[in-house]
Write a structure and sequence with these properties.
- This protein has helices at 23-33, 40-56, 66-83, 91-126, 139-145, 157-160, 168-180, 200-209, 241-246, and strands spanning 7-10, 129-133, 153-156, 193-197, 213-217, 234-236.
- It has a six-stranded parallel β-sheet.
- The chain is of the alpha/beta class.
- It is elongated.
- The chain starts with 6 loop residues before the first strand and ends with a helix.
- Helix 8 links the parallel strand 4 (193-197) and strand 5.
């Protein structure tokens, strides 16, 4: 099924950095580690608040690394919890625990990358890789920070003005593959491009809609996503499985 693949598009957040654990779940682990006394529903409300704030306001600058990003994200979340009077705490303690969550999550990613980075590196030897990500404008800094500079090109939502699940962002990824390996539409068909992602609705469905093959890394999602496992070309549960599938 995947023998004719000529290039691979990867998602970043939730795929490479957490191995298909939704970022809300990673952050929630951090909240529990720091003993922040809020329930999961209230946390999730603040998580959504922060994500929307980051999408509307350029808090994240191109030079921010991933720890910087996490510090800003957690600060927005915990400020919202206090403002909604869900968490009564001194400002010094709020800041301390917020930064503790950020560091917990950063260390979490460093552990996951010990598993995912070698996969990306090995695949890059055999296939041209492009990254397609809903991100904040600093993905190049993140890739450098984490020694993940294996991609021929990066399509970042904050830069191109298109966000998943819009299929156009994946078409931009396919076009980038064509340009970077010197092929045209006749020599690199959409069906010869593989898209790897953790989100069924934001990665797999839109990529499938433009004719790409897909590998869904099925893990711990947001919790309310309706899926049809007949849509992905392949379903795995760990990014490490990709080498066995693609390099046999």
């Amino acid at each position: 099924m995947l023998k004719d693949i000529k290039g691979i598009i990867f998602d970043y957040g939730g795929t490479i950095d957490t191995n298909s654990v939704h970022w809300s779940e990673v952050l929630w682990e951090g909240y529990q580690d720091q003993a922040i006394p809020v329930n999961k529903e209230e946390f999730r409300n603040s998580y959504v608040f922060a994500e929307r704030a980051l999408a509307k306001t350029p808090y994240i600058k191109p030079e921010h690394n991933f720890l910087d990003l996490l510090m800003i994200k957690c600060d927005l979340e915990t400020q919202d919890l206090v403002q909604r009077q869900v968490w009564t705490v001194s400002e010094d303690e709020r800041v301390s625990k917020s930064q503790g969550v950020a560091r917990y999550c950063y260390d979490y990613v460093l552990r996951v990358l010990k598993n995912s980075r070698p996969v990306i590196e090995q695949l890059s030897v055999h296939y041209p890789l492009v990254l397609v990500s809903n991100f904040y404008g600093n993905i190049h800094t993140i890739l450098k920070d984490f020694n993940l500079e294996y991609f021929k090109d990066v399509i970042e939502s904050a830069v191109v003005g298109v966000r998943k699940p819009d299929p156009r962002i994946f078409q931009l990824g396919v076009d980038a593959l064509r340009e970077n390996i010197g092929l045209d539409d006749d020599n690199l068909k959409n069906s010869e491009v593989l898209v790897v992602g953790d989100s069924f609705s934001k990665d797999i469905v839109p990529a499938d809609s433009i004719g790409c093959k897909t590998i869904w890394i099925k893990g711990k999602g947001w919790g309310d996503e309706v899926v049809d496992e007949s849509v992905p070309s392949v379903v795995v549960t760990n990014i490490a499985e990709l080498c066995d599938i693609m390099l046999k």
